[in-house]
Amino acid sequence: MPEDAPLLRLTGVSRTYARREVLHRIDLDLSAGECVALLGHNGSGKSTLLRIAAGRDTPTTGTVTFDGLPMDENDPRVRARVAVVGDTAACYPDLTVREHLQLVAVAHGVDEAEDWIDHVLADRLLSEHARSLPAALSSGQLQSLLLATALVRPRDLLLLDEPEQRLDPDARRRLAELIAAETEGGVGVLLVTHHAELARSVADRVLVLRDGALIADGTPDEVLTGGADGVTWLGGDAEGGR
């Protein structure tokens, strides 16, 4: 891949379900070491776009490439280099917190896995819960576990679906620090979020979706203060012309 080519590229991506178009010709480039935040109200198409970016869904029209090649969740290259943090349904009810991380580390051939697992547990404030099952965790601790499963494995691209959900303000601060550390280390991050201040603090670019269409794409200062196409992000909704 040429040095200046994007790590992730979506070109003309649309998605139709039962004749309802939920995404309308989306173009998105994400480079290594860059964080792009995607905002929009519920039903705007954010999670659909993330699933397509991860290779977990197929666009009706358009293309998705990772490192210059077609994105496919079943491609071993993608599995080795793309980490996705979704919802808590991904947890196994009969595995402890540590066993979740051991499973991921072994699957990705992590060297000195136990030492690294200890580090990740401490980083996500889960050390005291290492032997706990998911049912014994709070909602915020479950979210921290999902983040930990991404941190314990190698990755070049990190896809986050509303990772701030169920986190208290201190945990959101630590989430912002985590994302900053990822991009500083060269990882590309696509962040789907409802939290404008999180996007402002970590994103290089902010995109806003409304009814499946991209209505803003710019720096956080441009998009979150109304400078990009007259769009302002207002507490979970995007409004134009203000």
TrEMBL record:
Annotated PROSITE patterns: ABC_TRANSPORTER_2 (PS50893)
Keywords from the UniProt entry: ATP-binding, Nucleotide-binding, Transport
SMART domains: AAA (SM00382)
Keyword set includes Chaperone: no
Residue stretches making up the ABC transporter domain: 8-236
InterPro entries, alphabetized: AAA+_ATPase (IPR003593), ABC_transporter-like_ATP-bd (IPR003439), ABC_Transporter_VariousFunc (IPR051782), P-loop_NTPase (IPR027417)
KW Zinc (keyword) present: no
Superkingdom, taxonomy of origin: Bacteria
Gene3D superfamilies: P-loop containing nucleotide triphosphate hydrolases
UniProt-recorded Gene Ontology molecular function terms: ATP binding
Any Pfam family hit: ABC_tran
Name of the protein: ABC transporter ATP-binding protein
Organism per entry: Streptantibioticus parmotrematis
Source species taxonomy: Bacteria, Bacillati, Actinomycetota, Actinomycetes, Kitasatosporales
